[in-house]
Amino acid sequence: MQLILNTKGFNLNSLTQDSYDFLIESAQNYYDYLVENNLGYDEIKIQSISKTIFGLQLTLYSKLFSLEGLVLRFLDEEFPISENLSIQTSFYDEKHKILSLEIEESLKNQLFEKKNEIRLFSDLKFLVKNILDFYLSLKPLHFPTTLPRISPDIQALKDLENPPHQEQLEALEGIFSKSFCYVWGVAGSGKTKMVLLHALAFYLKSNLKVAILAPTNNALEQSLNTLIESLNNIGIDTSCILRLGTPTQTFAQRFPQNCDPLLNNKPNYKKSIQKSLLIAATLDTFLRRDELYELPFAHFFIDEAAFCPLIKVIPLCMFNKPITLLGDHKQLQPICLLNKQDSNNPKWQISKFWQYSSLFLESFFRHQTNFFKANPTTQINSPNYPFYTLTYTHRYGDNLAKLLDFYIYKNNLKGLPNHTNLFCHFIQTTSQENNANLDEANACCYLAKRFLQEKKNFAILTPFVNQRKLILQKMPALRNEECVFTIHSSQGQEFDCVIFSPVTLNYYLNDSRNPQALFALNVALSRAKKEIIIVCDKNYWLNQKGQFLNALIQISKPFSLSQT
């Protein structure tokens, strides 16, 4: 589906000085908010430290959420871990939770002598400061008006052995005929595996430089894992792909030729970024590398666009090159630490701009300093610019697709003929407090123990941090398995089986009357490829009339712990 707003009479100009002031104030205000409320600065506990030839290896107690904004504190001094600094990341082993750092020899020895004084922190303020510095540079920013440089024969793709279907073809036609558009698709709809794949293939065959940008390292590597393999399969040379920033060890071992040369071969870095045709990075990595601003990019592709903060995507408009957004605005929105009460406080109100996603890019240029008045909520329902909808998913069955369509998508979403197995394991709640349910936790642990023995690919998801903590307390062995997640931390992943622990009705986290909570439930359920098992008090949820979870439980089959 395509929707095009008649923009006659509107002028998407360059930003005014007032708009630059707005962006600068928003970044500074959010930075001040984090400082004043002691937010965005979290310690990551270190289990052990060992010395290597090039630096230090830190074994951590928990998995890193992000490799951006890491800071090493030694005695009273702080060392940001970043490219071109005295300490930088060489790789991260996500399975064993090992962070390998490259450190100058003299500093390495100094640190190791008093290694018990080393502490590791994640500092979100560092990333906010990067955005502030960009806007203070006052680089000219224009809503993209340049059309794509090539007009490939999209219809020729019909002759392929595995051709794109009609909706995917229409999305590709849009990408190569519009300066700005959005490809909207649910998980498994082919946004990456079909649409982005063939768009990139056309550019690479034409020897033109493009960029894929994503909000997180996890999202970036999920896309690249699929794209590099698929491009190889259709005969495209992938040695021209360069993934900037710190890779996970899994990615580095699988695609060493595509990893950032700045991490271990600095003299060849500038030659590599000039020679590479596809630059892939997180938005934070891209924006802090000034040398990328001079490269002749032909097109920008923003993956997980609904999760990308608008304030981090606006800088791409300095290139005035086509921008294509890919994502699903019916899932999670950008993470912003501004709480609801403070967002209504005039002192912090402008920080609310960090809650808006990249899907508001056209609206920002249209309304500029009147943006908040034109967009009172952070939820976009129907974009007022070209967008293309993919309504068939290969991720889950048509039974789940129909339910999600009725409550969430409302666009005739269709799924696989083979239905997703929907089960409900019913328990009677005897102990529940502080958003944690002991009976659900025990049942989840029982299932986990059995599924681990069966070597089943599964995850336990819950809306509540306290429930996740309780499950891990009851079964500490699950910490090493990295299979217990809050909904937010599960985004971008997929599992054969999802065990879902809803705990209790909460307006902000699982109450389908709240669109954001409904979208969070959508994320949880769409992680499953084959099977969903809801562990809950049946009577409690059947009394929650009109709720999405009520409807899901009604169509689920009973699941017994003795079931195989």
Automatic annotation (TrEMBL):
Xref: Pfam families: AAA_12, AAA_19
The record's listing under SUPFAM superfamilies reads: P-loop containing nucleoside triphosphate hydrolases (SSF52540)
Gene3D superfamilies, A to Z = P-loop containing nucleotide triphosphate hydrolases
* CDD domains referenced in this protein's UniProt entry, alphabetically: SF1_C_Upf1 (cd18808)
Q: Which domain of life is it from?
A: Bacteria
Q: Where is the DNA2/NAM7 helicase-like C-terminal domain?
A: 431-538
Task: List the InterPro entries hit by this protein, alphabetically.
Answer: DNA2/NAM7-like, DNA2/NAM7-like_C, P-loop_NTPase, SF1_C_Upf1
- The identity of this protein, by name, is AAA ATPase
Question: Origin organism of this chain?
Answer: Helicobacter pullorum
Its organism's taxonomic lineage begins at: Bacteria, Pseudomonadati, Campylobacterota, Epsilonproteobacteria, Campylobacterales
